[in-house]
Amino acid sequence: MSIQIFVTGGTFDKEYNEKNGLLFFRKTHLSEMLELGRCRKKVQIRTLMMIDSLEMTDTHRQTILGSCKKCRSRQIIITHGTDTMEITARILGQTITDKTIILTGAMIPYKFGSSDGLFNLGSALAFVQSMPCGVYVAMHGHCFSWERVRKNRKRGRFEG
Amino acid sequence: MSIQIFVTGGTFDKEYNEKNGLLFFRKTHLSEMLELGRCRKKVQIRTLMMIDSLEMTDTHRQTILGSCKKCRSRQIIITHGTDTMEITARILGQTITDKTIILTGAMIPYKFGSSDGLFNLGSALAFVQSMPCGVYVAMHGHCFSWERVRKNRKRGRFEG
Amino acid sequence: MSIQIFVTGGTFDKEYNEKNGLLFFRKTHLSEMLELGRCRKKVQIRTLMMIDSLEMTDTHRQTILGSCKKCRSRQIIITHGTDTMEITARILGQTITDKTIILTGAMIPYKFGSSDGLFNLGSALAFVQSMPCGVYVAMHGHCFSWERVRKNRKRGRFEG
Amino acid sequence: MSIQIFVTGGTFDKEYNEKNGLLFFRKTHLSEMLELGRCRKKVQIRTLMMIDSLEMTDTHRQTILGSCKKCRSRQIIITHGTDTMEITARILGQTITDKTIILTGAMIPYKFGSSDGLFNLGSALAFVQSMPCGVYVAMHGHCFSWERVRKNRKRGRFEG
């Protein structure tokens, strides 16, 4: 059974619009990143939404929750904006206990070269295969439990 | 206790010498890569050697083995050339059973931009924290046991 | 006599703030870019301002004009946001006729990897050495005269 | 009339073979580089050969000379390995006087990220439009006359 990757947007997939100088979403770079990493694990990628996590509503989170529940794979990675990652993790963590779900993201867009996204994706793929059932946030080389993780916005980092 | 990283060289750390057009080793890029990945796990980096793994002799491998034995951390990552990674893994795996040791490397030098190194480093850091004691090779998003892993040189990939 | 480079900001030097997801200015990357290009021409770099060219006022332009007039080098490059580059070019072009002044910029920030900035900087440095006195915009491999250049914002390119 | 670009190989176009760790040529990256630079000058790209300039023989140089003579454009750029660029420049310079020919190259392969190639290409494109007829080497932001240019191999730079 392959690993399921659900894409929701976030800094990970932001791009620079050279016509107006604004950041925007076009399509996910997940396939490109996995290819760059010479990843040979079988994965399924599905884009659920393409939004900044500050714009994520309860409805969006129910969509994510529903997709995780229905998913036949027991190994799920969710790419997600960092600003509200802990909220989505909590909603999933309180409900789903028979799958390993890893939320991950990036502090810098992948397309901007100096991204931490490739590093985080590598660790998310590893944690999803090796951690016991539960919901986690993989950032900074850490695997934080959904029950304790929170983003320290002032310092721009996750703690837990 | 922090994670121990032993550097041995390999494609990971190769650079291009612009004066003679040859590839060479200067110093490890591990710190730079961990910084780029916004890694916040406590790690210790120590360079044991800086060589192409095709030049690795029994003496070199005994140095690696000795360093792993003496190491107080039970979580060890070894960066290593891919060509003989399986040999070093076997020597370690036959002897050390009370630590989690992850060998990893890259198909493309980190400095050449399109490297899989950052992805592999992320997964190695995750596996070393989450896998049971034993010796493994982390490449392509997989975690191969030392007993089965081998590099398919013709296809340029690890199998196991 | 060395080439004078005046920095005014623009897309060239924008960076991504990973704490709030906004673009901002910190310091110029001109030295870094010239080093990357292995440039060995003697240049003087001076930052006049660090702003988006949409925020550039008459006062800012008088500062640029004054700096160009006082400058002892007859070869001047100005890095500038693309949105109002043509306005600054016109003000300079109407007044200064005894120096070669090249305005250049980028459609994508240098720090975002896929920048046209390095290419434009290379061409600006070449044009400033080889074009007769006058004021020009160097973009897209072209050297546009200040009298005709205009940015086609819809297509995201300069014409002239 | 468009600018003619003749490709001969050199460091510019070298790639890393991840199966054997050697550098090799596949195809030229000139189109990709011009696209990255948002170049909008009309250019014609033709690959004459794909070799290391240390392997360049008299026959190769006669091919280059012949191509330059027959070329209908009076603006020609030649990408060339740096090691013998001065020899080819001399052969062209002694014969062709009614065209502007710019030889350029790179100290680091374009594919290795930290290349000076994009910078040099930008300056070559500018010089070829603005310099009087003659044969030149564009490296390091300089435009060296074929009569004086030489590579200082020890210091890894061009002088003239």
Walkthrough of the structure:
4 copies of one chain form a homotetramer. In chain A, 27% of the residues lie in helices and 30% in strands. With 160 residues, the first copy, chain A, is α/β, with parallel strands linked by helices. The mean pLDDT of chain A is 96. In chain A, strands 4-1-5-6-7-8 form a 6-stranded mixed sheet, with helices on both faces. In chain A, strands 2-3 form a two-stranded antiparallel sheet. Chain A contains 4 helices and 10 strands, in the order βββαβαβαβαββββ. In chain A, a hairpin with a 4-residue loop joins β9 and β10 (157-159). Chain A has helices at 30-36, 58-70, 85-93, 117-130, and strands at 3-9, 14-16, 23-25, 43-51, 75-79, 100-104, 134-139, 142-145, 150-152, 157-159. Chains in contact: A-B, A-C, B-D, C-D. At the B-D interface, loops of B face loops of D.
